[in-house]
Amino acid sequence: MKLKISNKNKLSNKLITFLPILKSSFEEIDEIVKEVEQENPLIDVKYKRTIAFSEYVQNSSSEIIENRLTSKSSLYDELRMQILSSRIFPSQKSQRIALRILEDIDVDGYFSADEESIARELGVDVSEVQKVRMRFSLLEPAGVGAKDMKESFLFQLENVEVDDELFEFCVKLIEDFDSLEKYQNHKLFKKALNVISQFNITPALEYVDNEYIIPDIIVLNENGNLEIKINEDYYPDIQIKADIDNSFAKEKLKEAKSLIEALELRKSTLYKLALMIVELQYDFFLGGALKPMKLQDVADELGYALSTISRAISNKYILCNRGLIPIKSFFTKALDDNTSNAQIKDYIKYLIQHEDKERPLNDETLAKLTNEKFNIKIVRRTVTKYRKALDIPTSRQRKRDYKISIS
């Protein structure tokens, strides 16, 4: 399957009002359409709600869906039980921190907050919150509690029985996921990819409730031939009634046509996005590993602004024979500046936590290491700003603190 897209069209002014449709879930679209319907006598809306997930999935994904339908406990209940009954969190303090972290585990199983705010709220050191969160790697489902896909894969790797050499190589691939091509000639490359391809992109996939999560895109696998379908069953069918020749009717007719155009734009944008995902991630849909994919590349190829594509993938899911997968999970890079800043802050914090206590890293060195890690150009003053935001002292002050703690 090859993708040839030369489309460079932008949203017209009359559709700007309906940009929320691109971002909205099906339930939110219904609310928008019903509101317009109440005020517009020229439209007649019909709704179709007859999707059977079993028609679209096979093998492991059908088992996953069956598990979701028969599971009586929620992800929250399951994790809470493990926190309170296992030896992973032996003290009341660690349990209190773990239960607070649990409040910020999202529907996909990822930790969606920050450890600093939790530490301030509970009156504990941030390192304690970090240590407790890392113990989530020992909970089921594997990968839950991670901040992002890479960390989730590392959590899941802890639950796989492989020899030390393969384990270390898998860690290297996961941490350097954006540059997999560098390792293609390594003797363990295929074995490591086989291990990683078994991991769930959505850690809490088996707990995702079908009643609330509806896929926008369905990828069918017919003997290795992938077919993309837009989930038409959940789009409202809007019919325009006979025209009435007056100024009020003309305005309502324009509004009705704009609404229909906005819905069609949503479908076409998601379909083109799905084409790009399937082309690049073809092996993944056949059971292989996920490949690096940048949101900016998709925006450039489709001819839309990055913010438009961000809206397009927000809270959207693809249903395939590997399960129900958030579209955002296919992208290894940040979706916006805030996410990117958070990643950089986390890495700076990680570097400082593992620095040589006799020779702490100064901001210039931190900037150099961060640039190498993310392939960006960040200057020393930006690192200084991030370090101060993290409430981390200068390298000179840290060196004095280390000496005091040792003595």
Q: Tell me the number of structural domains.
A: 3
Count of individual beta strands: 6
Task: Please give the largest β-sheet.
Answer: 4 strands, mixed
> Quick check: average pLDDT?
78
Sheet with most strands: strand arrangement: 3-2-5-6
Radius of gyration: 24 Å
What gap, in angstroms, lies between the N and C termini? 65 Å
The global form is globular
Uncertain segments: 1-15, 50-72, 333-339
Helix percent band: 40-55%
Number of helices: 19
> Secondary-structure element sequence?
HHHEHHHHHHHHEEEHHHHEEHHHH
Classification by helices and strands: alpha+beta
Strand content: 5-15%
Describe the structure.
The protein is α+β, with helices and mostly antiparallel strands and 407 residues long. The protein folds into 3 domains: 146 residues, no CATH class; 137 residues, no CATH class; 70 residues, Arc Repressor Mutant, subunit A (Orthogonal Bundle). It has 19 helices and 6 strands. The N terminus is likely disordered.
